[in-house]
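Crash report, auto-generated. Payload:
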Amino acid sequence: MAGQDEKGKEKAPAAPEQPRKLDRREVLMGLSTVPALGLFGYTWQKQRQYQQAKLQAASPTPAAAAGLREINVALLGAGAQGQVLTDAMLRIPGLRFRAVCDVWTEYNQKRVVNILKRFKHEVNGYEDYREMLDKEKELDAVVVATPDFWHAQHATDCLKAGKHVYCEKEMSNTLEGARSMVAAARETGKLLQIGHQRRSNPRYLHAYEKLLGEAKLLGRIVTVNGQWNRGVAPDLGAPDRYAVPEERLEKYGFKNMHQFRNWRWYKGLGGGPIVDLGSHQIDIYSWFLGANPSGVMASGGLLYHDPKTHEWYDTVMAVYDYETAQGPVKAYYQTQTTNGSQGYFENFMGDQGTLVISESELNYAGQLYRDPNAPAWDTWIQKGYITAPKLQEVQAKEDTGAVADVRESVAPDEHKVPVALRDPYHQPHLQNFFDTVRGKAKLNCPPEIAYESAVAVLKVNEAIEAKSRLSFKAGEFEV
Amino acid sequence: MEDGKLSRLPMIAITVLRIFVGWHFLYEGIAKLTSSSWSAAGYLKQARGPFAELFKWLAGQPNLLANADLITMWGLTVVGVLLILGLFTRLASIGAMGFLLMFYFATPPFVGYFYSIPSEGSYLLVNKNLVELSALVVILVTGSGRFAGLDRILHALFARRPRLIAAAGSPTR
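Recovered output after restart:
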C-alpha cells in the first residue's frame, strides 16, 4: 500500500491538473473484498484436510499394525491397466511400493510415481526393467501390466530374478511365450498369477462352488453364450509434448506413438478384442464347464475400423465345442467394438435353469431363471444362496400400452445371486496373490490354468484365418 | 454509466454477487487443478446443439484437448480470483461470460434435446449457466470493481490522466 502511495505521488507530476485521490477511503474500499479470498483459502484448506483424511482412512493399515510381513512391490507397466491395479493394491494392507517401471517416462511413469508418493510410498522410477531388477534388491513381487508381447520376457526375467509375479492377461500373445512362463515358474519355484481376475471374484466363486457345484441349479448345461459389446472408441492419442522419442519407441518394439498407445489393435503386439475381452469370459466357460474345448469355429473381420491403424478383427463370433463330464456343450461367444449396448456377460443354460453372470456390478450381476419344470429351489433360497423369486405381474406395459397375454406370461422364475463386490474388480485377485506370497492361500489362476485359457482363446484368431473348424489336439492344453 | 451511478446499497449487493460468482469460478478451477485426472473430454463428448460437432472433434484431438484442459482449469481459477478481488473486473467478467457461453452451448437445454446425464434441475432454455451469465452482465455494466475492489485503487491512480500524455508515453517507456 505504501508502495502504491509512493507510486501515486511519483505519477502525480505527470498530470498536474488531476490531483490523485488515493485517500484512506479509496484504499479501504479497494481492498474490501480481499478477505473473501482469504476465506476461500481457509475453507478450501479445510476441505482438503477432509479429503486427505479420507484418503488416509481408505489406505490400508501398515503391515506391522496388521501383524503382516510387509511385501515389497514394483509395478512394471504404468499404463491404464497398471493404474487400475495400483488403485486396487493401494487398498490392500501390508504392501510397500518400491519402484515403478515404464518406458513412457514423460507421462505414465511420472503420473503413477506421483500418485504413489501421495500415499507415502517412496518409489523410484525406471525406464528399463532390468535396471530396476538390478537395483531394487529388496523386491518381493513384481506386478506386470505391460503390452501382451512383453509379458513372457518380463515375467520370466522377474521370476528368474527371484521375484513373485502377478502378470496381466493375456498371459502372452504367443503360446511359446506362455509356455516359457509356465516353465520359468516351475524352474524358479516362484509364484506366477495371471490376471484372469474373475477367478477370485466372490460372485463367480459363489456361482461355481455353491450354485453349480453344490446345488446344481442349472441341471445339465447344454448351451452357453456370452458377449462383450463395446461402442466405438476413438484411437488413443497423446499430446506431442509428451511424445516418446522415436529411438526409445523402436527400442521397445513400437513403430510409432500411435502403435505405442493402441498396441492392442496390432498384430504381433496384442491380440485384438477377442483376446483383450474374450479371454476373460472364455476362461469362465472352461472353468464352469470343468473342461477344455474340443474344437472351435469362428468368423470375424475388420468390418468397421480403419485398416491402416487397426490390424486385428473388430468383430468376432465363435462357437466352441465342449465334451463335459455331463455331455456335449456348445458355447457361443461374440465380441464387437461398434455398439456397446447390452455390455458383457456370460449366460449358462441348463435343462433346469439359467445363470447370467457378469463381472459388472451394474448389469447382469447374477440372475438365475428356474425352468418351470425344475424341482423347487426353496432350499437354496432358505440357505441364502439365491434370492426369492421376483413376483410376476400381468400388467399393461407402461411405454406401449400393450397388455401382456396371460397365457404367455408363464416365464421362468427370476432369482438373483446375492453376492456383490464392493471393492475394485481386481482387488480380490491381487489379494489372493499376496495372500499366497504370505503362504496363506493358493493361487486362483496359476500359469497352467492361464495357459489352457490362452490355448482356447488364441485358437479363435487361427480359426478365423483358416475359415474352418479347428480341433484341439490331445495334450494341446498341457505344458 | 458514470452519470447514472447506482447508489451505495445496490452497489454493495452487486459486490456480494460478484464475490459469490468469483468464488464459484475459483472453486471450479481449483477443483479441476487439484484433481489428478480431470479432463474435459467426457463432457465434450456429450455435447449437443449447434456446436456439438466442434466440441466432439476437440475431444478427439489430444494436443488441442490438453490445451483446452489447461485453459479451462487456469482460466476458471484466474477469473475467479480477479472477480473476488475486483481486479480488471470488466475483463474478468467478459472472460467468465465466455466460459459460461461455451458451457451453455455444449449442453444447451433446448426444447427437444434429451440428456441421460443427470442435471441438478429441470430447464427450459434458461439454465443456471445462463443465470450466472446474466449476473456477470450486471457485474460488467456496473463496474463493480470500481466500487469495492482493487480496480478502485487502480482507478484512483490512473484514471482521468489526460490522454495526450498517455499517448506521448512517459519517459520511462
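Post-recovery validation: The longest strand of chain A covers residues 315-324.
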